[in-house]
């Protein structure tokens, strides 16, 4: 196997292994604590997923692109400003979560808001680590970090359960501890070389806004159910369904560094024909995949959830079908996002996802007579569909323009 082919394979294997470990971890927590007691941990997990979108992905994408493009100095020169923004954002999010801790975490203590702050800081550290490794072509090392992060969490949760510790705060701390994989000093060294990018923080801000909105749509269902007044077991059930049906999406996230590099090479070389072929294949896969995913969700989803996470996790077939369809659309959207970002159009990505959020919010209001889980699932599908249309139009425009990646 060539080195070029080995990279995507290692990343895919690492993503699958990491995803399986994530399921093991969530199953351990829900079975060990029960669906009701595990609710605050599932909300914290959702925060971690959102932090991965808003912080890990943009930093990883930007650092990888900067290093590959010979602008490694941008990373070093911008480190102080980026770190300041990350810490400020983490503290702000922790403050907001403290203000609504009773409704969000179903607790009045300060521990989960503190864990929320630590989750954001840890997500940034992981993004810096993986961006540097991927930029230097060390895809095997990136895959190793994917596995190690959730493996460490599983070990720590297993130790707690074996010791008879069922405190949700302790299990939430295990989620935060996974970011310790970023303690890899050589990967944090960047040379002060290469021409500077005009506005690196502007790119990060646009990419972060768009990806955060995308992750809110993809993983925010459990939080939405909680805010709509759903029972704690219902919150956990929706979270479990999203965790299962977005497994292919998690694999796709693992291979994004390779996808970014491949699309960047095609665009930089002006090979619009090859990009259009990929776009047509993506459209065909979407047309087949969405109804197939919905059917599998309806017929097999509820049973799979009960087997994996226990009998306390229960979701109707119709709701499961909606969640599965939305997760399938998310695969299309992440590919479209990368395609638009390699053309250096982060603002277009942010606009597309702002439109999606608005569509989802309108759906929640319009279906006010439905239950919390049904409203959340319906809003999820509508938002993903709106994003697919907006990102598809953006991708079509940049392809028609014939412009490559701008420096």
Describe this entry's structure for a reader.
The chain is mainly alpha-helical and 407 residues long. It has one domain (3-401). It is 81% helix and 0% strand. It has 16 helices and no strands. It has helices spanning 3-33, 39-68, 72-99, 101-104, 111-135, 139-162, 168-177, 200-219, 221-227, 232-245, 247-254, 256-268, 272-309, 317-341, 346-366, 372-401. It is globular. The two termini are 33 Å apart.
Which SSEs are present, and which pair or pack?
Blueprint: H1 3-33, H2 39-68, H3 72-99, H4 101-104, H5 111-135, H6 139-162, H7 168-177, H8 200-219, H9 221-227, H10 232-245, H11 247-254, H12 256-268, H13 272-309, H14 317-341, H15 346-366, H16 372-401
Helix pairs in contact: 1-6, 1-11, 2-3, 2-5, 2-7, 2-8, 3-5, 5-6, 5-7, 6-7, 8-15, 9-10, 9-16, 10-13, 11-14, 13-14, 14-16, 15-16
Main attributes of the structure:
407 residues, mainly alpha, 81% helix
Note the run of SSEs as H and E.
HHHHHHHHHHHHHHHH
Helix content: over 70%
Count of spatially separate domains: 1
pLDDT averaged residue by residue: 83
Provide the structure class. mainly alpha
Task: Please tell me how large the radius of gyration is.
Answer: 20 Å
The backbone outline, from C-alpha atoms, is globular
Please give the largest β-sheet.
none
**End-to-end CA span:** 33 Å
- State the helix count: 16
Tell me the strand percentage band: under 5%
Give unreliable regions as ranges: none
What is the number of beta strands?
0
């Amino acid at each position: 196997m060539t080195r070029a082919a080995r990279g995507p394979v290692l990343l895919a294997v690492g993503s699958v292994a990491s995803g399986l470990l994530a399921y093991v971890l969530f199953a351990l927590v829900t079975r060990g604590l029960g669906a009701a007691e595990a609710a605050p941990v599932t909300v914290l997990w959702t925060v971690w997923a959102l932090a991965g979108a808003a912080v890990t992905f943009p930093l990883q994408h930007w650092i990888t692109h900067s290093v590959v493009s010979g602008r490694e100095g941008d990373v070093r020169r911008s480190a102080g400003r980026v770190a300041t923004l990350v810490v400020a954002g983490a503290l702000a999010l922790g403050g907001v979560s403290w203000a609504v801790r009773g409704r969000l975490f179903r607790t009045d203590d300060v521990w989960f808001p503190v864990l929320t702050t630590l989750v954001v800081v840890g997500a940034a550290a992981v993004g810096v680590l993986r961006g540097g490794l991927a930029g230097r072509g060390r895809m095997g090392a990136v895959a190793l970090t994917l596995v190690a992060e959730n493996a460490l969490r599983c070990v720590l949760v297993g130790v707690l359960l074996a010791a008879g510790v069922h405190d949700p705060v302790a299990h939430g701390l295990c989620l935060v501890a996974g970011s310790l994989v970023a303690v890899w000093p050589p990967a944090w060294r960047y040379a002060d070389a290469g021409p500077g990018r005009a506005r690196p923080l502007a790119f990060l801000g646009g990419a972060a806004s768009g990806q955060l909105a995308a992750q809110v749509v993809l993983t925010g269902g459990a939080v939405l159910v909680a805010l709509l007044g759903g029972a704690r077991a219902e919150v956990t059930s929706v979270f479990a369904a999203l965790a299962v049906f977005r497994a292919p999406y998690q694999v796709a996230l693992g291979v994004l560094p390779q996808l970014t590099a491949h699309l960047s090479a095609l665009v930089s070389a002006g090979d619009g024909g090859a990009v259009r072929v990929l776009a047509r294949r993506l459209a065909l896969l979407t047309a087949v995949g969405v109804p197939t995913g919905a059917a599998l969700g309806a017929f097999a989803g509820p049973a799979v959830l009960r087997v994996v996470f226990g009998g306390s996790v229960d979701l109707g077939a119709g709701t499961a079908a909606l969640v599965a369809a939305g997760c399938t659309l998310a695969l299309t959207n992440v590919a479209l996002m990368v395609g638009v970002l390699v053309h250096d159009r982060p603002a277009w990505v942010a606009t597309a996802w702002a439109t999606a959020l608005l569509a989802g919010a309108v759906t929640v209001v319009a279906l006010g007579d439905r239950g919390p889980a049904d409203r959340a699932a319906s809003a999820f599908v509508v938002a993903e569909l709106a994003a697919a249309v907006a990102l598809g139009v953006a991708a079509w425009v940049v392809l028609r323009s014939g412009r490559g990646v701008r420096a």
